[in-house]
């Protein structure tokens, strides 16, 4: 699957080698080493606009986060049956108005990862071809012929053959006319430099993410923790694979150049974004608010755990001092835990009841729109809407013992019906007490709860 990428990258490498080899006084080893570096620079320059667009879209999305939060807050409490669709359309319109594309963030990884894998695979194949010397190399790699691969495997960097690596057996090192000490002296500083550049690049990314972290999102908090954890593995991989694995000199040189480029690119793009698209005051306020709310929530939970432990230890200590009160003390501890759990459950139940009320109102409004042709339901008949509203109807007598208004059909229906009555009162005042024959009490032309809201 990656073979076409190998051909593409090998073609770029061959073109750079032909250009550099034509320069007078340049040796074969220097030409191949410079070609590898220029190949990396060519690939990274081609992917630079995509990487910039990815970070730019992320910064724009971050600055629009307060507006997204306002849209979600608006439609989360709406009794409009199509609130979910309207919220989605509003967010999409906001993205389009600010030039944000969802696919822009997915394109860079889909392009960069295969290119880097193809580049690494080509260098690995060329280095492995000369692991036992360059005399028997006849296999071609992409657009590179066997003779060109043989030249590459016979090239050296700082006097060390490009196919050599630290963990290579002594017999193979002897075939390449080098020693472990020479390979270690060249590769060790390069491996440490590659790991250092990787660590700095991860630190820049983590710092940027921490400044724009959505503390109210569990997924984003998990992503931040994952990146912090992956920093250790990202730094350890060049060290482990470089000193203990088959990492030829050519791959180590590629690592150093690639990681140095990535670190510099990340730092420069971050500085550009901070100057051209700084974090807005609205976003900073929202970030600080969600962060403080998160900290308060965590402090409350920690306080509850400390109080539970303190209550348990008090009960245990008091039991030791007063064994006769053991049952009383532990009952008090269990009562404390039950009260704490009941308070937390009451908060959760209130939130769920509010969401259930909004959902039920939306369902009733959807039924009204579908079947009542814009009219409010009444209690005359056995239609599907009337049955739904009758299930939420109040007692026939109100709290004062007076007969209830037959036009008020329930708690959810009061909003729409009372709005209709208010409109009837306005009509009466305008017409001198007469009500239009087309608009009788209890037969309003609203759209159910959505009209009343």
UniProtKB/TrEMBL annotation:
Q: Does the keyword ATP-binding apply?
A: no
What Pfam families does the database record attribute to this sequence? Answer: 60KD_IMP
Q: Which InterPro entries match?
A: YidC/ALB3/OXA1/COX18 (IPR001708), YidC/Oxa/ALB_C (IPR028055)
Q: How does it sit in the membrane?
A: Multi-pass membrane protein
Limits of the Membrane insertase YidC/Oxa/ALB C-terminal domain: 32-270
Keyword Transmembrane recorded = yes
For this UniProt entry, what is the primary localization, expressed as one broad class?
Answer: membrane
Which positions are tagged coiled coil?
A: none
Localisation per UniProt entry: Membrane
Annotated region (Disordered) at 290-309, 375-453
User: Where is this chain compositionally biased, Basic residues type?
Assistant: 429-446
Residues passing through the membrane, by range: 31-52, 100-120, 183-206, 227-256
Indicate the quaternary assembly.
Interacts with the Sec translocase complex via SecD. Specifically interacts with transmembrane segments of nascent integral membrane proteins during membrane integration.
Free-text function comment from the UniProt entry: Required for the insertion and/or proper folding and/or complex formation of integral membrane proteins into the membrane. Involved in integration of membrane proteins that insert both dependently and independently of the Sec translocase complex, as well as at least some lipoproteins. Aids folding of multispanning membrane proteins.
> Per the similarity annotation, which family is this?
Belongs to the OXA1/ALB3/YidC family. Type 1 subfamily.
Q: Which PANTHER family match?
A: CYTOCHROME C OXIDASE ASSEMBLY PROTEIN COX18, MITOCHONDRIAL, OXA1
Report what the protein is called.
Membrane protein insertase YidC
Q: Which organism is it from?
A: Corynebacterium freneyi
